[in-house]
Amino acid sequence: MTVLALETSCDETAVAILRGHSGESGSALLASEVASQIAAHEKYGGIVPEIASRNHLIYAPRLLDHVATSAKLRLSEVDAFAATSGPGLASSLMIGASIAKGLAIGFGKPYLAINHLEGHLLSPFFEGEDKGKEIRANVSLIVSGGHTMLVRVDGLGAYKLIGQTVDDAAGEAFDKVAKMLGLGYPGGPEIEKHAAGGDPDRFDLPRSMPDSENFSFSGLKTAVRYLLPKIVGRFCETPGAERRLTQAPYKLDRRLLADLCASFQQAVIDVLVTKTIAAARKYRVNLVTVSGGVSCNQELRRQLGEACVRGGFVFKNAEPWLCTDNAAMIAFAALLRLRAGFQSKVTEEIDPNLRLA
After folding, report:
1. Is it true that domain 138-317 has CATH number 3.50.50.60?
2. CATH class for the domain made up of 2-127+322-339
3. Contact at 8 Å (CB) between 329 and 122?
4. pTM
5. Terminus of the chain with fewer CB atoms < 10 Å: N or C?
6. Is it true that 2-127+322-339 and 138-317 share their CATH fold?
7. 113-123 pLDDT per residue, tens
8. Would residue 237 be called left, alpha or beta, if left means φ above 0 and alpha means ψ between -120 and 50 degrees?
């Protein structure tokens, strides 16, 4: 069984072909390509939907040709077509879904509409000893640019939302703080890079909603915004800096920048790790998984892994290439759903606000 999937939920155009092994387990990734639009959006400090959708129209046909050639398959030989149906930008989602539906109709094959968040949630099982096996019960932390949530997983399609962000997602907070500091986009890798060697205890930043299963990072972002001019005034001797709260980006010397990035990063990690471990204890699972773009952060991986060891939990994370938006995870989710007997109607609409649970 061979599945071709498209992922166009935001600004990345991705296509992948995954082949399921004979029987009920195992799979082989035949081809996977991603066309990044970071350069096109970097100067705006965030995603411009119109630019993203226009580029999807350019990149998607090229990637279809590339993956088919790499997999040594004709599109007519694919057994099912899948696409991300939400959540995401409506104008972006529509392109990938329309292409997959057209291929499914044209070749008379099944179509699967896949939740982008389910793709992330299942990605830790894509490789390693659990590859292709039944999805084990776990508490899953999905942390990305647009989403931060904890999900109880009892099996494929059996998800219960434990908690989610009530305002900014963790990745969004990284982007906004990076912009304040005059760093590049996306902000997560930039802050991680500058935090290396910094003192995470130098600046006392808030850890919001400590007694809730939900998340909040807006207050942390605001705390950095109000701290910045005070830092500039105190350490850089800029007259009146404390009063100029709207000035950004701020230019800090290397040591100061490293300490502030490390302090901000640690505040985010503390919240994510503490709430994830608390949820694993509450729901009495022995497996914790993490996925999504922010989970590429090596310090988050290290600290969450160590916390799991201390708590007696098994820890699984997706490989970094599977954490950012990609079509391999969408193909994997589609393959698992096909094996379980699911498929979608080609009349099914995209849903920019699609819920996971």
Report:
1. no
2. alpha beta
3. yes
4. 0.92
5. N
6. yes
7. 999 999 999 99
8. left
